[in-house]
Structure formats: structure tokens, C-alpha cells
UniProtKB/TrEMBL annotation:
GO terms for molecular function: carbohydrate derivative binding; glutamine-fructose-6-phosphate transaminase (isomerizing) activity. InterPro entries: GlmS/AgaS_SIS, SIS_dom, SIS_dom_sf. The lineage of its organism: Bacteria, Pseudomonadati, Pseudomonadota, Gammaproteobacteria, Lysobacterales. Residues 34-86 form the SIS domain. It is an enzyme of class 2 (transferase). Gene3D superfamilies: Glucose-6-phosphate isomerase like protein, domain 1. It catalyses: D-fructose 6-phosphate + L-glutamine = D-glucosamine 6-phosphate + L-glutamate. Keywords: Glutamine amidotransferase, Repeat. Pfam families: SIS. One of its GO terms (biological process) is UDP-N-acetylglucosamine metabolic process. This is Glutamine--fructose-6-phosphate aminotransferase [isomerizing].
Length: 86
């Protein structure tokens, strides 16, 4: 099953991102995020279970490198019991 998901990743990424790219620019307005809101992001939290958690651990390096923002990765079943400073 994991190999199936790995092979489906290019399609999943395209299907997720292409509706949000307009005129060569990323448009997250449907999420209530405009350019100003995105500029005010100071930390990223990635929450996942199983393989999604492990992808989050790998993604942390990408986000920290490209966005220059601190990233925390947590197991979802444990995160619900935390009281993180958001």
C-alpha cells in the first residue's frame, strides 16, 4: 500500500496545488490566507500519524530551509494532549 501511495504522489501534488495557482502565483484566498497573513507566520506545526508523521519529519527540513521558519512535528495522538504555545 505504501508503494502505491508513493507512486501516486506526483498526481496528488498536482491535484492539490494546481487549483491554487492562478496566473503563475499561489492563491490561498479560499483558505482565508492573503499575502499579509502568510508574511506573519512565525512557526509551522506539522501533525500526522504513521507514514504522514514520517513525511512531516522530512518536510521539516524543506520548510526550515526554504521558508526559514521553525517547524515542529508531532504525532497527532500525542499532540491533542499538549498545550503548545501557538
Amino acid at each position: 500500500f505504501m508503494m502505491k501511495e508513493i507512486h501516486e504522489q506526483p498526481t496528488a501534488v498536482r491535484d492539490t496545488l494546481s487549483p491554487r495557482i492562478k496566473d503563475g502565483r499561489i492563491d490561498l484566498s479560499e483558505l482565508g490566507l492573503d499575502e499579509e497573513a502568510i508574511k506573519n507566520v512565525r512557526r509551522i506545526y506539522i501533525i500526522g500519524c504513521g507514514s504522514a508523521y514520517h513525511v512531516g519529519v522530512a518536510a521539516r527540513y524543506v520548510f526550515e530551509s526554504l521558508a526559514r521558519l521553525p517547524v515542529e512535528v508531532d504525532v497527532a495522538s500525542e499532540f491533542r494532549y499538549r498545550d503548545p504555545v501557538l
